[in-house]
Amino acid sequence: MKKGIGLCIALLLTFTVIAQGSIDGFYRGKGNATFVLGGGYKKGNAYFAGNDKLDIGREEFYVSLFGSYGITNIFDVQVSVPYTEIGPNKAFQDIRFFAKYRFYEQQKNSASFQLSTALGFSTPLSNYTIGGLNDIGQQATSLEPIIMGHYQLDTGWFVTLQTGYAFKFDEVPDALPTTLKLGRALQTWYFDGYYESQYSFGGIDYRGTPRPQNFKEFAVDYHKIGGTIFKPLFKNFGIYGSVSYVFAGRNIFQGPGYGLGLVYDLKKNNAE
User: Fold this and answer.
1) Would the pTM of this model clear 0.70, i.e. be above it?
2) Over the stretch 109-145, which tens digit does the pLDDT of each residue have?
3) 201: left (phi over 0), alpha (psi -120 to 50) or beta
4) How much of the chain is in helix, strand and coil states, percent to nearest 5?
5) Is the CA virtual torsion 196, 46, 135, 245 positive or negative?
């Protein structure tokens, strides 16, 4: 199969606070680009405040622009720009940049194994407010190195594992994100299922001490499962749909999320 089928799935939730992995195991190819216009809805049915589960809910809507470009066949760059609305708060959230490099690849029989490293940077795009459960973020600037392994069969089945360390500036706690993804990527369609978690170091809890609280100091942990389907419609256009569910965590809302978007692939030539 051609490399890069299912290419755009790095986009899926990279533009929200709770991301479906920061990068994916596919490369665009030299001179090729992917552009995505996506949006979604998340429903918080309860809130994990430290070890307590509170009967508090909220709704979140978001729209995002995503772009990825292959500088070489083994080096990609990407950027995402989200706009989020939660209750009375609506603003551009945090812009995210990532550079991804494949430093090892082994092809054996009908399978391939790849190792990649990446470096991400994010910073707020606007001076959105902080101080309540309707916050759209923590106004955090962060630097995120990542290591990723990607194993794929010629039949399109693949498994990807990535982890790293999120260095947060100011008072926001550092975090350890991890994502495990299993799926199948073909020329005519793509799907995956994933588990994602984040563990934060230190920090404080909602309704904890000290009071009054500084929301930038909140530690955000979570466990989430989800899945994605992508279908090319014609030539370089396609559509994706995604679902997710946060089922446990710390200082985070429990509940489902839904996403939908349009994808455009700009290819320099027919080869990927």
Assistant:
1) yes
2) 899 999 999 999 999 999 999 989 999 999 999 999 9
3) beta
4) 5, 60, 35
5) positive
